[in-house]
Amino acid sequence: MKNIVILTGAGISAESGLATFRGSDGLWDNYKVEDVASIEGFEKNPELVHTFYNNLFLKVQKAEPNEAHLAITKFQQERKDLQIDVVTQNVDLLHEKAKSENIYHIHGRIDECVCLNCGHIEKRKGDFHFNMPCKKCGQINVLKPNIVFFGEMPMYMDKVEKMLQQCDVFIAVGTSGVVYPAAGFVQTAKYYGAKTYLFNLDNTENNFFFDKQILGKAGETLPEFLADLSKK
After folding, report:
1. Is the pTM of this model over 0.85?
2. Going by fewer Cβ within 10 Å, which terminus of the chain is more open, N or C?
3. Of all helices (H) and strands (E), which one includes residue 160?
4. CA nearest 110: which of 62, 168, 153?
5. What are the structural domains of the chain?
6. Average confidence score pLDDT of the chain
């Protein structure tokens, strides 16, 4: 065992009080998902989108990592001899707050904005607004939350593909298994020989690619699993 990939989704952050991306009512934090997480929604009302992520950032700042986040950090610290990468679908910063390393935000980060004109990525120091000028190129009406919207390509895909091909163990935590391309990660890892594990509250439609599925709150089930794995 040399390389381990841990994929985390909305379920791990839900245990820290952050709303999952899409509830059964089709809303995200009381907004229509298509209004705040699509290119069409952004083009229609960019200021609404910025307001949504400004408000979400305030909630993210208050949220604290739970036992599942902390267990991943502890595992990384205990097994410095292993390459342990965290690929997250979450835009929050709970892995950073837990002081994990090797974190890849494939759907972007809540604390960043990107200029659609020059590609400059700016860290958040307060609220972002669409009419703010880009600090690099000076253009206005070009700032977009650095979030991967529906229809956009997730980040770090080439890097993630290589990690999946090389990993010995693939662990998915709190992910629905229906949002692609992340839903296909387990297939790649399994094809190249990895042992695959899923930690989730409920069964998923994609669970047949996992060697073992552990149901329950990740904050209760993941720490014990990683502690055992750390001894191997």
Report:
1. yes
2. C
3. helix 157-166
4. 62
5. 1-18+64-107+155-232 (3.40.50.1220), 19-62+108-147 (3.30.1600.10)
6. 92
